[in-house]
Amino acid sequence: MKVTIKDIARMAGVSRATVSKIINNYDDVSEVTRQKVLKIMEETGYRPTFSARSLSSQRSNLIAVVYAGKVNANFNHPFFVDVVNSFKKNIGFLGYDLLFFSNEKFQHSDENYLTRCKYFQVDGCLIISGEDIEPTIEELDQSHIPCIGVDIPLKGNRSGYLMTDNYKVSAKVVEHFYLLGYRHIALISGKPDSAIANLRKEGFIQAMQQYGLTIHENWLLHGDFYEESGYCAMKELLKQKPYPQAVFAASDLMAFGAIRAIKEAGLRVPHDIAIVGCDDIVACRYSDPQLTTIRQDKEKIGKLAAYMLVDLIHDQIKSTSVMVEPELIVRGTCGSRIK
């Protein structure tokens, strides 16, 4: 027969309210009573149900995870995979479980992220996106539900966000190219509607201007952060005479695509064209040549997102934003042009 909270209370000689307080770690119960109840729970194999916890604490201990973007958007980019894994690990340490929301189901429904969050009574929400804020995300951001955004600038009263300092990302790349003797530099950016892509593009233009380098408008191309778009953009650059000496691909996957296009053209990296990527995914160490890139500290971003979100849930902090420092990782796709 299944043991209930009522049975535990009867066997311990206490009220159900006292058992509930012990389950939810309230501190106004004597240690003697606490240990007595916990021993009975262990001996009977009793495990508190989700509803028993949530009804008492008024919390579900659930965190919604949303990939904000167009239909069929998913977490398959290595950067987001690593961030979510770090977030999952750290939010678990803090006592929460994750609930992943699918945006496909909203195509033929009046539901949205906010209605789903209310339905499941989530305590908070992690929102990941490289795109501008869509209406359904803005509605969630402006709600009473605490939200943390990764690569998406949330502005709500109970929201915060964090991202790598994207101006510094581009500044470090341009500086690295400049010090190695490269003067004719192209950019393969992300999608025009991506806030992150636009920040990196603005940072690139600003850094080029600071070093007095010529900005070629036809060398400022857009991809979508994935390999095929980097391949196509590089093929367009190679059609131009002269083509650039160096290319900053604003994601490692696009950099891999660019390297493939360069090799297909019978050219060599870095002897003919130098390449720098961004993210420092694991594959950078195994490409040929190994990819010079900007490291985004994905472990740190995921951990900070978890702790910031829990602090927002408990009203320990107000709406805030954090910029994470990028790091240049030098490998084999850049060589010195200075003789």
UniProtKB/TrEMBL annotation:
InterPro entries, alphabetized: HTH_LacI, LacI/GalR-like_sensor, Lambda_DNA-bd_dom_sf, Peripla_BP_I
Q: Which Gene3D superfamilies match?
A: 3.40.50.2300, lambda repressor-like DNA-binding domains
Domain HTH lacI-type intervals: 3-57
The protein here is known as: LacI family transcriptional regulator
Mind listing the UniProt keywords for this protein, alphabetically? DNA-binding, Transcription, Transcription regulation
Q: One GO molecular function term? A: transcription cis-regulatory region binding
Entry-linked CDD domains: HTH_LacI (cd01392), PBP1_LacI_sugar_binding-like (cd06267)
- Specify the species: Lihuaxuella thermophila
